[in-house]
Amino acid sequence: MASIATGADLGVATRSRKRRLIERNSLPALLLFLPPALILFTLFVVLPMVDAATFSFFDWNGYGPITDFVGFENYADVLTHRNFGTAVRNSLIVVAVSLVVQLPLAMWCAIALSERGVHINVLRTLFFLPFMLAEVAAGLIWNFVYDGNYGLLPAIGDAIGVDMPFVLGDKFWVIPAIMLVITWKYFGFHMMIFIAGLQSIPSEVIEAARLDGVKRWQIVRHIKIPMIRSAIVISVFFAITGALQLFDLIIPLSNGGPSHSSHTIVTFLYQFGILRMKLGFGGAISVILFIACVIVALAYRRILFKVEQN
Amino acid sequence: MKRFALAAMLGLAAILPAQAQTVVKHLHITSIPAEVELMNSIAADFMAANPDIKVELPFLENEAFKAKLTTLLQSADAPDVFHSWGGGVFYEQAAAGVLRPIEDVLSDEAKANVGTAGVSAFTAPDGHMYGVARDVSEVVLWYNKTLFEQAGVDPASMATWDGFLAGVQKFKDAGITPIAIGAKDKWPAHFWWSKLVVRLAGKDGFEAAARGEGDGFAGEDFVKAGEYFLQLSELEPWQEGFLAASYGDASGLFGDGKAAMHLMGDWDYGAMKDNSADKDGIPDDELGILPFPTIEGGKGDPTDTLGGLGGVLFSKNASDAAVKWIEFFNSTENQAKYAKDAYYIPIAKGAADVMTNPFKVQIGQNISGAHWHALFFDQALGPNVGGVVNDVSAELAGNSISAEEAAEMIKEAVDDSL
After folding, report:
1. Domain residue limits at A13
2. What's the whole-number mean pLDDT along residues B355-363?
């Protein structure tokens, strides 16, 4: 009896789901809206990925047919390349700085600027401005700032009597200099995400807490931040994947130099895979980066899921 | 209605000839405004004489040009004619079949005009001719006479390597930057390594190493080239922040009279002015050319020069009209205009005769009297080995690599690509 009931229930459930689908008209909508996205995704994401993965097993200079199969040699070459370690290290530094410096800074600004008011709007626009600048333009601007002969930085150094180094030509200083630009360029973006989150918190909640005598810091710590959790989750994800894919700021700033000390994984790919016309080698780097990104994305989801359950 | 018909006819008249035109896209890397103007005016003359051909002259900056060319040549947007430095990069393009052989189309007159050196420079190992030579260039040691006087350095004392190092030290003592270098772009640094190799290993040594024979680039002469380079770098002869300086920065620094020497191609005569703050650069009477110091026991011939033999290549889909345009562009008459304004030293027979610029005249004589005119190493060796040569040269300039390691890295890259 029980089994029949279950079967009947199941039948009802499937039928009702089917009915729901038809009622909502989502099938025609799916047929109408899915193909363009699917075609574009296949054309511009899946196919190039398959392409890159294919020629990562060949020795190919970019011209003509792909014939010279070399197995995993390109992968071995990448992993033993004398500059690959530096590129990985730099990409990890970018991830770390994004998470440890950029996001807290963005949060701090967001909390300070989430109220309404004219001066607040002005500040918000100002902080958001760098994000709207094209990456190459931003890189060139900072290239001028850092220029050791005519730049702003040595001028400031002169004014306070400190001899500033040529930061972009110095193996040590080039990394902090690039990190400063990255933070300057992207913290406004995360700030905006946080502000949007903060503004969706009902003001009654905050008011109630205030009436109960909760201190300002406690409101931030126990009400605001927990309530914009989803915004933070998105921000962290953007920060990590963006950091792993960083390319267009580096090229105009340092071009990976001096002595290849400021490459990220992607500028490393561009310099040694594309400019040197070793497309198979470049393909191998891109596959490695892709796998790393997938692992990060999956791990991130998993960690979040666990946190959610707790 | 009448008015409409008239307008329609006018419109048709405007469209019809345009449709019949063959478009020739000539991708160039010329950035000096006056030189671009000259190029435009030659194209205008050509189009006036050949109304059925339309010449377009798209431009790409030097570094962007090198980066984009591979993709560009295999796209539907490929230029018909494009700049080339010849050498290994050209051979790879020819082997890949992205070029058009033109030996049957190009007139005998045009072939004779560039001479045997010009023809062979743009003939690939497969025996086909794919391009037309345009200019020759030489890397020379430019120097600023005023600064030499200020520091009390006699240019003649710089003729040997030891004398050269002593001179550099004198500049340091006088508080003058001895040498400008654009090490961020790396190829300017590779000129120092190349010149040392030309002196130490000579033609036979270099060519054997490029073929991977014996110890290749890890051989004694090449390690020595690195050691000599490091001797210079240890004196810290470059301007402050040279690792962050592009070619343009270094050229401007020299043009502004802030560095005593600059090892650079003859094109820097114009570029140094263009990159300087006042756009005038160093006046002719204060500018000089030093012969690169000789090295005792070196296997190179003292007359050997380093430089380029530049020209244009024709891409796979280039039309006969493109060849016709280049014949016109490369004619003695038109090339003489470039020679007259000292933009480059044309290879076209007789075109260089009108050169009055003393520096270009001297360089022209150097090249024609050379036992070996070595092609820029980073082009001659192809993009991969050339890239490594550029890398280690910048490291050697920064004194951050040993001579042995530098030589070993280049040898590895050669072995890798053989």
Report:
1. 2-55
2. 89
Confidence check: pLDDT of A306 > 90: no
Q: Are residues A157 and A224 in the same domain?
A: yes
- B285 shares its domain with B325: no
Separation between Cα atoms, residue A24 and residue A41, nearest integer Å: 26
pLDDT at B3: 56
pLDDT digits (tens, 9 = 90+) for A85-117: 999 999 999 999 999 999 999 999 999 988 777
Listed by number, the residues of chain A in 235-264 with a beta carbon closer than 8 Å to a beta carbon of chain B are 254-255, 257-260
Angle at alpha carbon of residue B137, lines to B135 and B140, rounded to 5°? 165
Which pLDDT belongs to residue B17? 47
Give me the residue from A63, A167, A254 closest to B92, CB to CB.
Answer: A63
Q: Looking at the domain assignment, is residue B8 inside a domain?
A: no
Q: How many CB atoms lie within 10 A of CB B320?
A: 13
Q: Is residue A62 part of a domain?
A: no
Q: Does B184 touch chain A (CB under 8 A)?
A: yes
Q: Considering only CA atoms, which of B296, B300, B291 is closest in space to residue B199?
A: B300
Q: Which residues of chain A lie closer than 8 angstroms to B66, CB-CB?
A: 275
Q: Identify whether A122 is part of a domain.
A: yes
- The predicted-structure confidence for B85-103, as pLDDT tens digits, reads as follows 988 889 989 988 899 999 9
Name A302's Cβ contacts closer than 8 Å, sequence gap at least 6: none
Classify residue A310: in a domain, yes or no: no
Amino acid at residue number B289: I
Dist. CA B33–CA A36, nearest whole Å? 46
Asked if B74's CB is within 8 angstroms of A275's CB, the reply is no
Give the separation between CA B318 and CA B329, rounded to whole angstroms. 16
Whether A36 and A129 map to the same domain: the answer is no
Are A156 and A35 part of one and the same domain? Answer: no
The yes-or-no verdict on residue A5 having pLDDT over 80 is no
- Check if the beta carbon of residue B325 is closer than 8 Å to that of residue B81: yes
As a whole number, mean pLDDT of residues B373-387 equals 89
**What pLDDT does residue B234 have?**
97
The residue assigned the tokens 């770390």 is A96
Residues 57-76 of B with CB under 8 A from A: 66-67, 70-71, 73-74
Do A124 and A205 belong together in one domain? yes
Please tell me whether residue B188 adopts helix, strand or coil conformation: helix
Closest alpha carbon to B135 in B18, B267, B226, B248: B267
In angstroms, how far is CA B381 from the centroid of its own chain? Answer: 14
Q: What is the largest CA-CA distance in chain A?
A: 92
Last residue of a domain, one of A245, A262, A279: A262
C-alpha span between A262 and B74 (Å, rounded): 31
In terms of domains, do B268 and B411 share one? yes
A171: closest CA of chain B, how far (Å): 9
* Best to test chain B binding among A63, A143, A147 (most B CBs inside 10 Å): A63
Confidence of residue B62 (pLDDT cuts 50, 70, 90): confident
Within this chain, do residues B148 and B36 fall inside the same structural domain, yes or no? no
Contacts B395 to A, Cβ<8 Å: 259
Total domains in the fold of chain A: 2
Q: What is the pLDDT of residues B154-178, one digit of tens each?
A: 999 999 999 999 999 999 999 999 9
CA distance A78 to chain B (A): 14
Task: Output the CA torsion sign for A279, A281, A287, A290.
Answer: negative
Full DSSP string of B213-234: -TTGGGSHHHHHHHHHHHHHHH
Q: Are A97 and A240 in contact (CB under 8 A)?
A: no
The model carries a pTM of: 0.81
Cα B189 from Cα B180, distance rounded (Å):
10
Q: Can you give the CATH number for the domain in which A213 is found?
A: 1.10.3720.10
Q: Is A157 on the interface with B (CB under 8 A)?
A: no
Structural domain count, chain B? 2
Q: Are residues B299 and B323 in the same domain?
A: no
Domain containing B95 equals 21-135+307-372
